[in-house]
Amino acid sequence: MEIHDKISAGVTYLSAESFEHAGGVVHGFSTRLGGVSTGIYESLNLGSTRGDDPEHVWENYRRFFAAVGADLSTVAMTNQVHSDVVRPVTTADIKAGLLDQEPYEADGLVTDIPGVALVIFSADCLPVLLYDPVRRVIAAVHAGWRGTAAGIVERAVEKMAFYGCRPEDILAAIGPGISRCCFETHEDVPNAMTAALGVRATPFLSPIENGKFKVDLKGINATRLERVGLRPEHISVTADCTACLPEKYWSHRITGGVRGSQAAVIQLL
């Protein structure tokens, strides 16, 4: 099933058809369209540590959550460090102040508590949302190349198994991030992928001139999800490349880090 654009109250975001058809959850991948921020943060910046006006960020969250139908009063977020750590979320992790930084470091969150919105951030790295409609468990993952090599999506599925989830029941949506077309690297990245996956990484690594490579992070994460038992037909991947679409997304590479942030949210009803 596809991941497609939706517009609500002027906010453009992406939604996975598989999650919509399963029901019982709200979710969305943000774009940079539909907010109130200005300058380099124009307009739907959801990054609270980028230097934007906090009042603008707060209003952007209000608009984004209203668009996807999520409850802004019970939110858990990540303090991302490009790890493979996936944190189980309890009511103790609900933020008292929306824009306060978390006291923990994690690049993934998982919960079975209805009403708790899990939020992760991206601007080239991949946002990945997972949902088991049978056991009613959700996860949100930030997968950069280091997290991809370390297998963070697999760690998320393993954490979901602690809640009784079976991989074959889990739906996955890989959101907008840098695609093979634009992710040009030195050999450190492909070396990390082959060290982790061996020959299974080869189809996703394309040698180019000057000893560099193009890398397909979306394909590698989809393969990792299949490797831990997800059905291929349960894995949705958007074609949107954050580096190709600067009018729609922030790209860390394209802006040199002078940017706002996208976010992805998922919440059990």
CATH class: Alpha Beta
Tertiary shape: globular
- What is the distance, rounded to the nearest whole angstrom, between the alpha carbons of the first and last residues? 22 Å
Count of helical stretches: 7
Rg to the nearest angstrom?
17 Å
Class derived from helix and strand content: alpha+beta
The biggest beta sheet reads:
6 strands, mixed
Helices and strands, with pairings:
Layout (H helix, E strand, L loop, with lengths): L2 E6 L2 E6 H6 L2 E6 L23 H15 L6 E3 L8 E3 L19 E4 L5 E6 L3 E7 L4 E7 L1 H6 L1 H11 L8 E4 L9 E2 L2 H10 L7 E3 L5 E3 L1 H11 L7 E3 L14 H4 L6 E7 L1
Parallel strand pairs: 4-7, 5-6, 10-14
Antiparallel strand pairs: 1-2, 2-3, 3-15, 6-9, 7-15, 8-9, 8-10, 11-13, 12-13
Structure description:
The protein has one domain (3-177, 231-268): CNF1/YfiH-like putative cysteine hydrolases. Helices cover 23% and strands 26% of the residues. The chain has helices spanning 17-22, 54-68, 145-150, 152-162, 188-197, 217-227, 252-255; strands spanning 3-8, 11-16, 25-30, 75-77, 86-88, 108-111, 117-122, 126-132, 137-143, 171-174, 184-185, 205-207, 213-215, 235-237, 262-268. The chain has a six-stranded mixed sheet. The protein has a six-stranded mixed sheet with strand order 5-6-9-8-10-14. The chain has a three-stranded antiparallel sheet with strand order 11-13-12. A hairpin with a 2-residue loop joins β1 and β2 (11-16). It is globular and about 45 Å long.
